[in-house]
Amino acid sequence: MTTNTEKQSLLDRILEATRIGENDDWEFKSSKGGFPSSLWDSYSAMSNSAGGTIVLGAKQLAGKITLDVVSSVQLDKLKKTLWDQLNNRQMVNRNILASGDVEPVPFQKGWLLAIHVRQATRKERPI
User: Fold this and answer.
1) Structure pTM?
2) 62: phi > 0 → left, psi -120 to 50 → alpha, else beta; which?
3) CA quadruple 109, 68, 48, 125: dihedral positive or negative?
4) Which single residue of 16, 46, 76, 119 has CA 20 to 30 Å from 26?
């Protein structure tokens, strides 16, 4: 279980990453229109390399990342879709996430969803 201090620390890291922009360690995806199908490309790339964090509830316009958060109802739908698709072999060949790898992060009047993707082991690759 994550403490409030750890959540704040994660939020601080997310905010810093928005200032720096997307890179090998951070991907930001909007989820206002529902679950982003492009998440699976990022999941695969991160798991097959050094890992990283995907944040749902953000958008990128003209190279600038803004956090557009989701409601608690949307957050629940995103988590359900994520786990359903992670365990659907037609979507992804291997689920390497554990429950602690998916963290809801409160921000302003909504939520972000941080998905920590670890590096897949040699036996697990390719994802």
Assistant:
1) 0.91
2) left
3) positive
4) 76
